[in-house]
Amino acid sequence: MGEQKRKEAGKPGFIFGKKNYKFMFIGLAVIALGFILMSGGGSDDPNVFNPEIFSWRRIRLAPTLVLIGFGVQIYAILLNPDK
User: Fold this and answer.
1) What is the pTM of this model?
2) CB atoms < 10 A from the CB of 82, how many?
3) Which strand (E) or helix (H) includes residue 70?
4) Quick one: pLDDT at residue 49?
5) I need a labelling partner for 57 at 20 to 30 A (CA). Which of 9, 10, 36, 75 fits?
6) DSSP string over 15-68
7) Mind telling me which residue stretches traverse the membrane in this protein (predicted)?
8) Closest Cα to residue 54, out of 69, 38, 74?
9) How far is the C-alpha of 63 from the C-alpha of 32, rounded, in Å?
10) pLDDT for 14
11) At a CB cut-off of 8 Å and minimum separation 6, what does 22 contact?
12) How far apart (Å, rounded) are the C-alpha atoms in residues 67 and 32?
């Protein structure tokens, strides 16, 4: 009887619950969206300056989305799925 309990206790499982993984994927999607919004704005000719690099989207919105995504990731790790 004791051996059966030991086998059940040693059974591998997932570290987090389903709710945790859902929030992790949401956080990853928000981080990816932030990096996608941050990209681009280059110029084909290196002698021509493109002022689009200083747009509101790249300076304010994209880094804010990345930080929000990291916050969601921290929340997903600390979330107790049993409650």
Assistant:
1) 0.78
2) 6
3) helix 62-78
4) 83
5) 75
6) SS-HHHHHHHHHHHHHHHHHHHHHS----SSTTS--GGGG-HIIIIIHHHHHHH
7) 21-41, 61-79
8) 38
9) 11
10) 77
11) 76
12) 11
